[in-house]
Design brief:
The chain is α/β, with parallel strands linked by helices and 436 residues long. The chain folds into three domains: 120 residues, Rossmann fold (3-Layer(aba) Sandwich); 241 residues, tm_1862 like domain (pyruvate-formate lyase- activating enzyme, Alpha-Beta Horseshoe), CATH 3.80.30; 54 residues, Nucleic acid-binding proteins (OB fold (Dihydrolipoamide Acetyltransferase, E2P), Beta Barrel). The chain is 34% helix and 22% strand. The chain has 14 helices and 19 strands. A hairpin with a 5-residue loop joins strand 16 and strand 17. Helix 9 runs parallel beside helix 10 and helix 13 packs parallel to helix 14. The relative contact order is 0.08. The protein binds iron/sulfur cluster. The site of iron/sulfur cluster has 10 residues, from helix 7.
Length: 436
């Protein structure tokens, strides 16, 4: 068996959703606690963790090309761990296809990385795609240093089984983290530097505490933390938008006026084939109630074009929905058949050229909607959370309450909340003037 010296440096590369970004941050903290340091920029790391995403076809294949790129000229490679959703979905197959990989660890088992590294150093290759009883959160080190805006995973997994999605298979059933653990972790995040916390979950609004209270209760309690200025949450499902959560947008000042509520398509037959278990009308009625509670709210969504069987007319319905809602921002994708999902074997797979054309038209409509929303904000005064320095001297970048990127010039610092007037709008960002 090939022995390897214990790693002194690491690099965690995360792909995909914010949940993966959060897991990547936690894995880095875990490795740091083992005395392993982040590899300096541009330098090779002794240990590389590829924290993978399984949502799109190319994503899985990309893992193997990333692994290939880690091989050195002399045929050796750093210690390689494959984590995340491709690890969960493909497990042993990765070991068979990629001999240079020492560890394969699923999203629910990465708290066991230190033990796996000890095995790998001894030359033993390990796969752990367990969904263990003990939750990783109880085994992970406390948060030490975070940026002004931090993620807090409150819920994992999904019970919705949309016919195109692998998440229920790679992340498991919906699990809500305990209320007290979340309040404790939120306090630690604020102590570690966070001014804004984004509550994360595949279906974050399905979170329930031990007394079946909803996300609005957690938001209300976190809003009482004095140094915490802003609260956000993502990703939600229309069917879990409770009256309580909608009212929280009216009543909790620290809850930002931004709602990411995926819909995926604008036609009921397609939504049914996707097993979204809501209609276009029920989705629009939720948005009406949310807008009644918080009239200036920014809405965001997810769309898939080219779902099997989607006709030209059904795609036109999606464009009509975009027109009707007036999204502030949106994510849009071409349908990608995922192994093991019902939609992958459905009739009427849409040709790639048709998908390309539809995606282009949809993104044209979404960009116009986003620009219109930004233009509508010009002249507004709002707070901006400073996240980083801009390109020019004295220039800073941050986010408005509506999650718009804003750049402005001022004597400021990362983590400051500054008052600006939005003076000019672009498609993806706005410029602001500091209000003394
Ligand atoms: S709600 Fe649907 S799309 Fe979202 S994670 Fe669950 S199965 Fe996937």
């Amino acid at each position: 068996m090939r022995h390897t010296p214990p790693p002194r440096t690491y690099r965690v590369k995360s792909f995909g959703c914010q949940m993966n970004v959060y897991d990547g941050e936690r894995m880095a903290e875990l490795l740091a606690e083992q005395g392993i340091s982040p590899a300096p920029e541009g330098e090779e790391a002794d240990l590389v963790v590829l924290n993978t995403c399984h949502i799109r076809e190319k994503a899985a294949e990309k893992v193997y090309s990333d692994i290939g790129r880690l091989r050195r000229e002399d045929g050796t490679a750093p210690l390689i761990a494959v984590a995340g959703c491709v690890a969960q979905a493909e497990g042993e197959e990765i070991m068979a296809r990629a001999p240079s990989v020492s560890m394969v660890v699923g999203p629910q088992a990465y708290h066991r990385l230190p033990a796996m590294i000890a095995d790998a150093v001894e030359g033993r290759r390990v796969v752990d795609t367990d969904m263990p009883a003990e939750t990783k959160f109880d085994m992970l080190p406390a948060r030490r240093k975070v940026g002004p805006s931090a993620f807090l995973t409150v819920q994992e997994g999904c019970d919705k089984f949309c016919t195109y999605c692998v998440v229920p298979y790679t992340r498991g059933a919906e699990v809500s983290r305990p209320f007290n653990d979340l309040v404790t972790e939120a306090h630690r995040l604020v102590e570690a530097g966070a001014r804004e916390i984004t509550l994360l979950g595949q279906n974050v609004n399905a979170w329930r505490d031990e007394s079946n209270r909803g996300l609005e209760k957690l938001i209300e309690v976190l809003a009482a933390i004095p140094e915490l200025a802003r609260i956000r949450y993502t990703t939600s499902h229309p069917n879990d938008m409770t009256e309580g959560l909608i009212e929280a947008h009216r009543d909790v000042e620290k809850l930002m006026p931004f709602l990411h509520l995926p819909v995926q398509a604008g036609n009921d037959r397609v939504l049914k084939a996707m097993n979204r278990s809501h209609t276009v009308d029920s989705y629009l009625r939720i948005l009406d109630r949310v807008r009644a509670a918080r009239p200036d709210i920014a809405l965001s969504g997810d769309f898939i074009v080219g779902f099997p069987g989607e006709s030209d007319a059904e795609f036109e319905d999606t464009l009509k929905l975009v027109e009707q809602v007036g999204y502030a921002q949106c994510f849009s994708f071409k349908y990608s058949p995922r192994p093991g999902t019902p939609a992958a074997t459905m009739d009427g797979q849409v040709p790639a050229a048709v998908m390309d054309e539809r995606l282009q038209r949809l993104q044209g409509a979404l960009n116009a909607s986003q620009l219109a929303f930004n233009r509508h904000s010009v002249g507004t005064r709002c707070s901006v959370l400073v996240e980083r320095q801009g390109k020019y001297p004295g220039q800073w970048l941050g986010k408005s309450p509506w999650l718009q990127s804003v750049h402005f010039t001022a004597d400021a610092a990362i983590g400051d909340l500054v008052e600006v007037e939005l003076v000019e709008a672009g498609a993806n960002s706005l410029s602001g003037r500091l209000v003394q």
